[in-house]
Amino acid sequence: MDYTTSIYNVNITNITSIKSFISNQNRNQRILNDDVFEPFSNESIVVVVQVHKRFEYLRHLINGLSIASNISQTLLIFSHDYFDDEINHIVNSIKFCRVLQIFYPYSIQLHPKEFPGTDPEDCARDVNQDFAKVLKCKSYDSPDSFGHYREAAYAQIKHHWWWKANQVFDHVTITQNYDGYFLFLEEDHYVAPDFLYMIKLMESKALEVCKECNILVLGKHKVPTRNISFINNDVIKSEWVSSKHNMGMAFKRSTWINIKNCSNIFCTYDDYNWDWSIQHISRSCMVNKLQTLSLFTPRVFHIGQCGMHAFKNVECSAESIVSNLIESFHYSSDNFYPSNLKIGYEFNPNFILSKNGGWNDKRDHMLCLNITNHFKN
Q: What φ, ψ does residue 292 adopt, rounded to 5°?
């Protein structure tokens, strides 16, 4: 057998071999560097990174994490939906904190010709439903709200986010008694050096002025430029809004329990976006809507401007964006680690939440619900 990786000794050309490794990895939960640092405790922060296969972005994120203050106190969890030798190498090279890798087991990579991937008998996205009935393609009776059939690549993002959250809160052994913050990042994010310090400061501020605030938000979707100012120490108190507060979210187990209690609605809501689905359950299922405390000047930045939801006329070079950020950090270094935060303003968003479709296939509903019910292959 031709093994092509030196770390895990997995034949990356053989799906069965990858599946076997992933199953063992998710079960054994080997923590890298566990014997190097102080014992893991509620004073630590868990950083969870959702990873696909954009190695260059991930490399930048890891470099940024490596120089952040107090990073040695964190548990860094990488949740992958693609098994890749280069990515595994860079993750295994991390020495600055504890590291755990988990792998989404229902990925397109592992199911290339069957659900949750694309089955050859699936209905094409734009086929007319009447024709789909004639063809008798799979799930012909379940187009989305706009008459389209599922696209596996889009559905996978919501599935992966949901599986990852269920896994880190309910199945990762080291976090079972942990009651601190879980910060959720993605591979194309970048962090400021004081991002961990700011979580602690925001937590103190929330206890002071907004005890109902159950999500701390460190990110903002504005494209990074050279002239970012870190002088403004305002925090904004508001209802959680998916388009504003889905980046650099930090929340505790109690908030996750409230989200998971609405899993039936999350898993059946016709929207392929995990964040719009959470927005929906916040407004339709929870007794109290999700409330946030967010930084006016972010500490988490989006460097993957040209990913799946790309914007026009934006800088797409991760190297250039990261260089701009580092330059801004240098010129604003005296304004990091503020001693206090002040409430800048509060707004109550008044908008009609509309679904985006892409999530009406009953197979997606069932897989999502089974994930919540601890379903395992």
A: -120, 155
